[in-house]
Design goal:
single chain; mainly alpha; globular; disordered N terminus
């Protein structure tokens, strides 16, 4: 996402989830929707978390790089279709909440 390693500060929730995912030991989580929809072109920690959740809940096989590109959009659309949600490839409040539930169910 264009930020040099070591220069980005993570918020506490993001740091806990990111560290657990990096260690291969995710924990049950219930993060609130960040308030900003994630879509193609989005980047940062919330995208990393969403990619990790899509990998666990859907088996998406995404690279967790914090960049919301075509693969993340396609995985989001597949998740939305599976969940019976409106398919737009955007992770808004409803998709986020369902993704958190699916992630926790997959643990």
């Amino acid at each position: 996402d264009g930020i040099r390693a070591g220069t980005q500060r993570r918020r506490p929730r993001e740091a806990r989830v990111h560290n657990a995912m990096q260690q291969g030991a995710p924990t049950r989580v219930s993060p609130a929707y960040a308030g900003t929809a994630l879509r193609t072109g989005s980047s940062g920690d919330d995208v990393r978390i969403a990619q990790s959740y899509l990998n666990k809940a859907l088996g998406a096989g995404l690279t967790v790089d914090g960049r919301f590109g075509a693969s993340t959009r396609q995985a989001t659309e597949a998740f939305q279709a599976r969940e019976g949600l409106s398919i737009d490839g955007v992770i808004g409040r409803t998709t986020w909440e369902r993704l958190v539930l699916a992630f926790n169910a997959a643990l």
